[in-house]
Automatic annotation (TrEMBL):
Keywords: Acyltransferase, Transferase. It holds the Pfam family Acetyltransf_1. This is GNAT family N-acetyltransferase. Residues 1-139 form the N-acetyltransferase domain.
Amino acid sequence: MIIREASMTDYPRLRQIYLDARRESFHWAHADEMTLDDFDRDTSEEQIVLAEENAQVLGFASLYVPNRFIHNLFVHPTASGKGVGGLLLKSAVAELGTPVTLKCVSENHKALRFYKNRGWKAVVEEGEPGAKYWVLVYE
């Protein structure tokens, strides 16, 4: 598996991964309101790295470099549990340096366990009722 910077030719697959992964795991959100265009809006001005194996894009991370912030980390549901997320996370930390932060929706218990199992610390829970998230840091 390789980690590399995304190019515009990767965007159709990245859009699909973003849509499929959110529809699969964001049980608190309205899946019918999610679209392929969300990817472009939600990754604007961010550096995108992706995981690829046998010419197949399996997942991506979008990084807001000025703030050392991992904005998105998504793995296609069919690639879940294969180490893709861990490799993307390591690559993002190496690219950004430490300390690095991210936010994780409080309802996303699986993702919170994923980050905590890799040494991330939950710092503070923020947001309005129904839209709470944890700020996590890796130092």
